[in-house]
Amino acid sequence: MFVLIAAGVLYGISCAPGAVWQDSGLIQYRVWHGDIEGRLGLALSHPLYYIVAIGAKCVPFGEFGHRVNCLSALAGAVAVANLYLLVRLWLGRTFPAVVAAMTLALSHTFWWHASIAETYTLWAALFLGELICLLQYTRTRRMGFLYLLGLLNGMAVAVHMLGSIPLACYVVFVAILLMKRAIRAKDAAIIAVLWIAGALPYEYLIVRNIAHTGDILDTLASAAFGSRWRADVLNTTLSWKIIRDDGLLALLNFPTPNVLLFFAGCYGLHRVKPAAFRNVVLALLVLFLLFASRYTVPDRYAFFIPFHGMVAMMIGLGSQGIVSRVRHRFVSWVIVAFALLPIGVYAAAPRLAQRANVQIGTRQDIPYRNDYEYFLRPWRTGYAGAERFATEALESVENSAIIHADSTTAAPLLYIQEVKGVRTDVRIVSPVASSTGSPPLNEQTIATLLDEHAIYVVSQTPGYCPAFLFTRYPLVRTGLLWRVTRGIQED
To answer: Rounded distance, CA 126 to CA 132, Å?
Structure first.
């Protein structure tokens, strides 16, 4: 309980107070509209997360955006507490469980996603609950733990398709138990039924889409890969850039000498029982690393979160091996101090990186967002940059103006407009979400729309501004936005 409260306080303080950028802002937008499916394919629908988040929306006090962000904070705290309980039950010692919990709690990507609206912390809480059930089954052989494992994994898949990776391991595990006659076919059937019950929100979307489209294969492809990520999911090639980025992500998440305890934990893993649980842990460690390390989507750092959870387990195991050999309290205190070291690193990293002009691979044209601070510090305490931008942008344009926003900036603009009721006459147009009644903005409509409306874009950067605007119409800076003016006309 202490670990749960401590993590809850940490993430509660770290949580963003309102509107946020990018995918997290789009999560808030979907929750506001009660949308459990989205527009990016079924693999990115995450329906169970949205069902829970919509419940948070209905809480009758506090800022809407803060309530949705706090769901990630609460789920993150539960995940950290589950990891503590898992390692405590596994190793029978409090110290390695504390080290493992601190390691995950303060790892950059996990902390970052516990401070904004995201799906990963809820998935991690369920996944670590699955491992607790698996551990307890391998120790007690009580079928109730396997039944609960099936239910939790089904729920995890309904939150995020990352749950399919441990599912593959569990299917093999149950198949081996059946071959050894350690469980009955009836037990396996009950596990399957409970898994189906847990995954019901996701299954509902799949069945509904098949019924609407009549295309089974296309719907299943959408459920597995989303609308356009098949090549990324199935990528089997590595480049030096990917390997370099993987190394930098590891350094960012574990900027402490304690990372060496991971190797000590891996070395000592073969001595830890139960063997069946140990084998699943090793398989998951390898599979999660293989999946994330060659995944090529822009936000692939988030897909390392499951691997980071396994790393934290191994660091906990490694710390137990060290303190059992060097029986001196000083060693324990040093390990705890090193576990806290990331806080200082994250506090100092933005200024140091900016001074050294380190390229962190993000855009630098978002108003009221210093990308070094935004991406290198995982906490969002008091951050209101997204709301400030959206409010000023909306209030600066003429009546009935049109603003073309990119996937980063659309959500806060829509948030301020719909949740706060600011400038509802303005139409926000974007590839990911648009204001109700927004006209199509394209090469065929732009000329007519310019006769009737003032049109703005948030960015003039290629890739964030439509090519037909960027190349054919001069953009004039007006406050935070760029106004589209008459330019070269089509022949």
So the answer is: 10
* CB-count burial class (<10 Å; 0-12, 13-18, 19+) for 330: exposed
400-430 pLDDT, tens digit each: 999 999 999 999 999 999 999 999 999 999 9
Alpha-carbon torsion (475, 478, 483, 489), positive or negative: negative
Residue identified by tokens 């948070």 is: 56
Q: Strand, coil or helix: what is 145?
A: helix
* CA 6/CA 351 separation, integer angstroms: 28
Q: Roughly how many angstroms between the first and final C-alpha of the chain, as a whole number?
A: 71
pTM given for the model? 0.95
Could you read off the pLDDT of 69-111 as tens digits, one per residue?
999 999 999 999 999 999 999 999 999 999 999 999 999 999 9
Using DSSP's 3-state secondary structure scheme, residue 428 falls into: strand
Instruction: Output the pLDDT for position 487.
Output: 62
- Burial string for 199-212 (b: 16+ CB within 10 Å, else e) reads bebbbebbeebbee
Q: Domain extents for the chain?
A: 2-347, 385-484
Q: Tell me the DSSP string of 450-489.
A: HHHS-EEES--SBTTB-HHHHHHS-EEEETTEEEE---PP
pLDDT for 490: 45
**Distance, CA of 490 to CA of 78 (rounded, Å):** 58
Q: What strands lie across the sheet with 455-457, from one edge to the other?
A: 427-429, 402-404, 455-457, 481-484, 475-478
